[in-house]
Write a structure and sequence with these properties.
single chain; 300 residues; alpha/beta; Rossmann fold; 6-stranded mixed β-sheet; 4-stranded parallel β-sheet; globular; binds pyridoxal-5'-phosphate
Length: 300
């Protein structure tokens, strides 16, 4: 595994507000098993191996970073992989699914209705009957072993800081960060979906499940969803583009772009006291940009 270095950003706004911002480059961990998805897979792969499974079955949308990461991990670590994909097949395959199949992942499409049953025990039993003995990995790869893997994002940070920020989908990554802080510093989670308040309870349950503890040094910032999951607005894309030109760091519009936009907005509002040091986790996910380019003609 590669290193995920810390990169300090230089910016007029940061200087004016007296805030230091460091980016934890989880996007550089692995060329194909991106960022937090690698952290989430690590102990699950070990567990699958320990249980003598040859096949990993998981779930995701057609542009899912988790599907791409699982396919790449299966190829690298010698597992067969099966992806249960939400919705109908569209040919030619989009860049995410085409990458996944090139890694050997077998794709099975199910209706959006059926996909809602992804955590239902009867449905999972049905899948086991259909596919045989497989290691089941939930959507987004989130379970307690994933939380364990994500605690290592924090262990890896060698500087002192006051805040750590992370984008949220299922909340597994953020839960790992919160569990790892063990009450120190402040953690801010930025849901990528509209109505992200529900992630408060998810986070609480995951943190409690993993560590047996509850903490209060964290909160969710739910105002930067830009209309919903995978929705984009011109100002978000403009922000990402200027960020890339200034800092030579690519973001993607689903998670990291929204978090970074929100973070700069908060900094501009004086949310952080002068002298604060903030770490923003770049969770990766850049494979998804190819799909955006194709669907919307966007240059991201
Ligand atoms: C999946 C993903 C997230 C969200 O992770 P969760 O653990 O599901 O909250 C954040 N950023 C990127 C780039 C992702 O791919």
């Amino acid at each position: 595994m590669e290193e995920a270095p810390l990169q300090k950003l230089e910016d007029k706004l940061l200087q004016a507000q007296g805030v230091e911002l460091w980016v934890k480059r989880e996007d550089l961990l692995h060329p194909h098993i991106s960022g937090n998805k690698w952290r989430k897979l690590k102990y699950n792969l070990q567990e699958a191996q320990r249980q003598n499974h040859q096949t990993i079955l998981t779930f995701g949308g057609a542009y899912s970073n988790h599907i791409a990461a699982t396919a790449a991990a299966g190829k690298e670590y010698g597992f067969k992989t099966i992806g249960i994909i939400r919705g109908e097949e569209h040919l030619p395959l989009n860049p995410t699914l085409s990458f996944a199949t090139s890694c050997g992942m077998q794709l099975h499409y199910i209706t959006r209705e059926k996909y809602k049953l992804k955590n239902d025990p009867a449905f999972l039993e049905e899948l086991l009957l259909q596919f045989g003995q497989v290691y089941l990995l939930p959507e987004g790869g989130t379970n307690l072993l994933a939380v364990k893997g994500c605690t290592e994002i924090v262990h890896d940070i060698s500087i002192k800081y006051d805040y750590i920020c992370c984008a949220m989908g299922t909340g597994g990554t953020f839960a790992g960060i919160v569990a790892s802080l063990a009450g120190k510093q402040q953690a801010l989670g930025f849901p990528a979906l509209k109505g992200g308040e529900f992630l408060k309870q998810e986070t609480e349950e995951l943190v409690l499940g993993y560590s047996g503890q509850s903490y209060s040094n964290w909160q969710l910032i739910t105002d930067y969803h830009f209309g919903g999951y995978a929705k984009v607005k011109p100002e978000l894309l403009a922000f990402m583009e200027s960020f890339r030109r200034q800092h030579y760091i690519r973001l993607e519009p689903v998670y990291t772009g929204k978090m970074m936009y929100g973070l700069f907005d908060l900094i501009g509002q004086g949310y952080f006291a002068r002298g604060s040091r903030v770490v923003a986790v770049h969770t990766g996910g850049l494979q998804g940009n190819a799909g955006f380019q194709e669907r919307l003609g966007l240059q991201v």
